[in-house]
Design brief:
CATH architecture of the largest domain: Roll
Protein name: PD-(D/E)XK nuclease superfamily
Order of helices and strands: HHEEEHEHEHHEHEEEEHEEEHHE
Number of domains: 2
Organism: Trichococcus shcherbakoviae
Helix content: 25-40%
Radius of gyration: 24 Å
Structural class: alpha/beta
Strand content: 25-35%
């Protein structure tokens, strides 16, 4: 049974805030440096230096002490909604939460971004307020997915503990509908497939433990020997487990056909040969239209330890993706680290 870091099944707005704060807390505990890098990249300017600074013989007004230890003051106020239900009068009242901090940020957090008209109305009121302040309040409107993506940018493949925490947070967000899937069309998930690659490509299928979370993605790619070797567009996602009453299937996306049932049974049999228990442990099967051969090389040392998600619009530098076969060919000309 997988242990979850983030609570489920409670009042959504409260638990969404608590879980997001827990995610940030875990990042801080794991690495204060990466936590502050996250804050600087998402909420503050480059001049923001929240880390403790040690100085020798720093000149003050009347003397030069031997050493000083300082930290800039900052405060972040968060308002969470389950949709774009933000109201300017409530947000303006939240400004009373700030005191004389040097850096002040108000985050409005929801599954979707605020309407531009609503955001503009609040920010005009905020501008009038800031004109009376020594240190202005910065407003950041973001989403649960935006928070997760930003944390993903500051951790790397070797941060195993934080990768697992972030994966569970994403799983929680998807289960509770906190992340929309409208942009899944541009994401490609990479999976390790050294042992089963030939079977996966031949059958156009990949399987993973059903308890493992993932962010929405339309493309699946397979990694082996320092490179992504195949990429396909997902056409169905089906979970399956063997019970005393026989195989039980659940179509999460796409149609449950007899052909797909047969492929799942062949995957289970193939997994037996490698000691994988696909029978009593529920697995999720990703079906692709076709796996196309590619060679998207990793140029840095060491193999990745788990999955990774790529934004194909960034990798291929385009706002409109071509066919899957064309994507496979273009990836041969690219590298990643």
């Amino acid at each position: 049974m997988k242990i979850h870091y983030f609570q489920r099944y409670h009042e959504k707005e409260n638990v969404a805030t608590a879980n997001t704060m827990l995610l940030l807390s875990r990042l801080y505990q794991y690495s204060s440096d990466k936590f502050f890098r996250f804050l600087k990249s998402e909420f503050f300017s480059d001049s923001f230096e929240p880390e403790i600074v040690f100085n020798l013989q720093e000149k003050s007004v009347d003397s030069i002490p031997d050493a000083t230890i300082t930290q800039e003051s900052f405060k972040i106020v968060v308002e969470t909604k389950m949709s774009d239900w933000f109201y300017s009068n409530q947000l303006m009242r939240h400004l009373n939460s700030f005191k004389d901090e040097k850096y002040k940020v108000m985050i409005t957090l929801a599954p979707e971004l605020m309407l531009e008209s609503k955001k503009a109305d609040f920010e005009q009121q905020l501008k009038d307020y800031n004109d009376t302040q020594t240190h202005p309040v910065i407003h950041i409107n973001t989403t649960f997915e935006g928070i997760a993506n930003a944390i993903h940018e500051v951790i790397d493949d070797r941060d195993y503990e934080m990768q697992e925490v972030l994966e569970d947070y994403l799983n929680y967000c998807f289960n509770d509908g906190l992340i929309t899937v409208s942009d899944s069309w541009k994401f490609m998930r990479m999976q390790l497939a050294a042992t089963t690659l030939d079977f996966n490509v031949r059958e156009d299928i990949y399987y993973d433990n059903a308890e493992r979370g993932f962010r929405a993605h339309d493309y699946l790619s397979l990694y082996k020997n320092k490179s992504i070797r195949a990429v396909g567009k997902i056409c169905a996602r089906i979970s399956a487990v063997e019970t005393i009453d026989g195989m039980q299937y659940e179509a999460e996306y796409g149609e449950l056909t007899e052909e797909r049932k047969d492929k799942i049974l062949r995957a289970i049999t193939d997994g037996d040969g490698y000691g994988y228990d696909l029978r009593s442990i529920k697995h999720r099967y990703f079906f692709v239209e076709k796996f196309h051969e590619t060679d998207f090389k990793k140029i840095t040392p060491r193999a990745p330890m788990g999955s990774r998600v790529f934004d194909l619009t960034q990798i291929l530098e385009t706002d409109q993706l071509p066919s899957t076969q064309a994507i496979a060919e273009l990836l041969k000309t690219k590298t990643w680290s």
